[in-house]
Design goal:
Layout lengths: L47 E4 L5 E4 L1 H11 L6 H9 L14 H15 L3 E3 L15 E3 L8 H11 L6 H9 L15 H11 L6 E5 L2 E5 L5 H16 L18 H14 L3 H4 L5 H18 L18 H11 L4 H14 L7
Antiparallel strand pairs: 1-2, 3-4, 5-6
Helix pairs in contact: 2-3, 2-6, 2-8, 3-4, 3-5, 3-8, 3-12, 8-10
C-alpha cells in the first residue's frame, strides 16, 4: 500500500570541503579525518542548489519541480472524491446505508482518474477492436506517483500484474471475484480513506456519532462551497442550453479534458446512485429531464469513438459535443487514454441501477 510521496535524499559528496562549497559548515575535530571514497552520483539523478535566506545552499531534485508543475494542472479533487462528496449528507456526514452501488462506482472512478492523468491507456494493439470495449486490455504508461494514495496503490497493482481489461480491474478492486489468488487486488476501506483525504484537504471534518449500539466516525461537510461548486457543474451540464464551465479553484482553466471529465463525473454519480442529491433543488420535471440527459450522455460516451452529435438533445448542451471534440483534437496523442474513459463508462451501463 502506498504511504504517499516520499522525500528524495540527495547523496552527499564526502570529498567536498568547506572551502569548495559556499555556505558550508565545518565541524571542529573532524577536519583531520581522512575522507572516504566518494560515491558517484547516478547518471539519471541530477541535483541543483539554491541559496536560502541564511546563506546556505540547499540541494533539490529538478524532477520534484516537474512533478509539482504536473500536479498543479490537476483538479483539486479527484473524481472519486467528487462522487463521494455528492453522496454524503451535509450535516450527518455519512452515506445512505441502502446504497449498494457506490463502492463499485468508486473503483470505476479510480480507473477514470488514472486515465485522465495519463498513467494508463488502452494497449496499443490493432486487434483489440475485435473485443468489446470494456474487455480490451489496459497498460501502465507512466508509473510516476500521483500523490493520491488510492490512485498510487491502484497504479502499483496494475504495474506489477499481468495486463487485464477495464472491467476486470474494476471487478478485482471491488472484490467481485471468485478467484482466491486475486483477492489481494481488492482495495479496502475506499470510502473511509477518501473521506479522510477530504478531511486533510479541508472539505470535511471528523466527528463521532452514536448509532444505538456503537459509535461511528462521521464526516460532515465543513467547506460547503466545494460541494456547491460540484452541484453547479452537474446541473450546468445536465440542464443548460449552452454549457459553460468557468474556471474555479476546484477545476482550474488549464486542467485537461475539463468538459469530458465533468461528463464522466455526472455519469459516475449516476451509476453510484448519488446524482439525485445534486439535483434536489430542481422541480420534479426538471429532475426527470436531467436524468434523461445523463442517460443520453452515458450512452454516447460509453462508446469509442464517441457517439455524441453536435446540437444536443432536447435543446440541452448544444455545444457540449463540440467542446469535447475540441479537447480531443488538442490531445490527439492521448486517444488511447480517452478510450479507457469510454471503456469505464461502458462498465457503468451494466450496473443494476441503470439497466
Amino acid at each position: 500500500m502506498s504511504s504517499g510521496l516520499q522525500r528524495r535524499r540527495v547523496t552527499s559528496n564526502n570529498n567536498s570541503s568547506s572551502t569548495n562549497v559556499p555556505g558550508s559548515i565545518s565541524t571542529p575535530g573532524l577536519s583531520s579525518l581522512s575522507p572516504g571514497p566518494a560515491s558517484p552520483e547516478p547518471s539519471n539523478y541530477h541535483s541543483e542548489s539554491f541559496a536560502s535566506e541564511n546563506g546556505h545552499r540547499i540541494a533539490f531534485d529538478p524532477r520534484d519541480l516537474q512533478e509539482g508543475d504536473e500536479r498543479s494542472k490537476q483538479p483539486r479533487l479527484t473524481l472519486m472524491e467528487e462522487v463521494l462528496l455528492m453522496g454524503l449528507k451535509d450535516k450527518q456526514g455519512y452515506l445512505s446505508f441502502w446504497n449498494d452501488n457506490i463502492s463499485y462506482a468508486l473503483r470505476g472512478c479510480i480507473v477514470l482518474e488514472l486515465a485522465f492523468r495519463g498513467r494508463i491507456s488502452m494497449q496499443r494493439d490493432p486487434t483489440r477492436r475485435r473485443l468489446p470495449l470494456c474487455d480490451r486490455l489496459i497498460e501502465v504508461i507512466d508509473e510516476r506517483l500521483t500523490g493520491e494514495v488510492l490512485l498510487d496503490e491502484a497504479l502499483k497493482l496494475m504495474k506489477g500484474s499481468e495486463k487485464m481489461s477495464v472491467a476486470a480491474w474494476i471487478d478485482l478492486m471491488s472484490g467481485e471475484t471468485w478467484n482466491l489468488m486475486k483477492i489481494g487486488y481488492q482495495l479496502k476501506q475506499v470510502r473511509e480513506r477518501l473521506a479522510k483525504g477530504l478531511v486533510d484537504k479541508g472539505i470535511l471534518r471528523t466527528e463521532k456519532r452514536n448509532f444505538l449500539l456503537f459509535d461511528m466516525a462521521t464526516h460532515p461537510v465543513s467547506d460547503t462551497g466545494a460541494k456547491d461548486e460540484i452541484r453547479r457543474r452537474a446541473i450546468n451540464i445536465l440542464t443548460t442550453k449552452t454549457v459553460v464551465l468557468n474556471a474555479s479553484p476546484l477545476v482550474p482553466d488549464d486542467v485537461p479534458f475539463r468538459y469530458l471529465r465533468t461528463v464522466a463525473m455526472v455519469c459516475a454519480a449516476y451509476a453510484a446512485n448519488v446524482l439525485e442529491n445534486a439535483l434536489s433543488n430542481l422541480s420534479h420535471d426538471g429532475r426527470d429531464r436531467a436524468f434523461g440527459r445523463v442517460d443520453e450522455l452515458l450512452g454516447d460516451y460509453s462508446q469509442w469513438p464517441f457517439a455524441s452529435k453536435p446540437g444536443g438533445s432536447g435543446g440541452i448542451g448544444i455545444n457540449l459535443a463540440q467542446e469535447i471534440s475540441d479537447e480531443l483534437n488538442a490531445n490527439k496523442d492521448k486517444e488511447l487514454q480517452v478510450e479507457v474513459v469510454a471503456a469505464a463508462l461502458s462498465v457503468f451501463t451494466r450496473l443494476d441501477s441503470i439497466l
